[in-house]
Inverse folding.
């Protein structure tokens, strides 16, 4: 694994945790630095950190707030 990849993983808590939970990524990251982008994308999907997930969470929160306000009326 290159120093660049190691540094990126150590600087992000989510990447570090994901790598520990999914150890098969060690082999892929050791083979090629190009696998790092796939690794990050896989982490975002499994931890639901993609843009669409964030939008859905925001919509759900707004919906919950609206229903709460309706109950208070």
């Amino acid at each position: 694994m290159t120093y660049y990849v190691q540094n990126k993983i150590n600087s992000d808590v989510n990447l570090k945790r994901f790598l520990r939970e999914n150890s098969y990524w060690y082999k892929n990251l050791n083979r090629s630095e190009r696998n790092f982008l796939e690794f990050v994308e896989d982490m975002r999907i499994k931890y639901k950190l993609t843009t669409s997930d964030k939008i859905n969470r925001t919509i759900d929160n707004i919906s919950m707030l609206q229903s709460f306000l309706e109950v208070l009326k």
The CA atoms of residues 1 and 32 lie 8 Å apart. The longest helix spans residues 51-72.
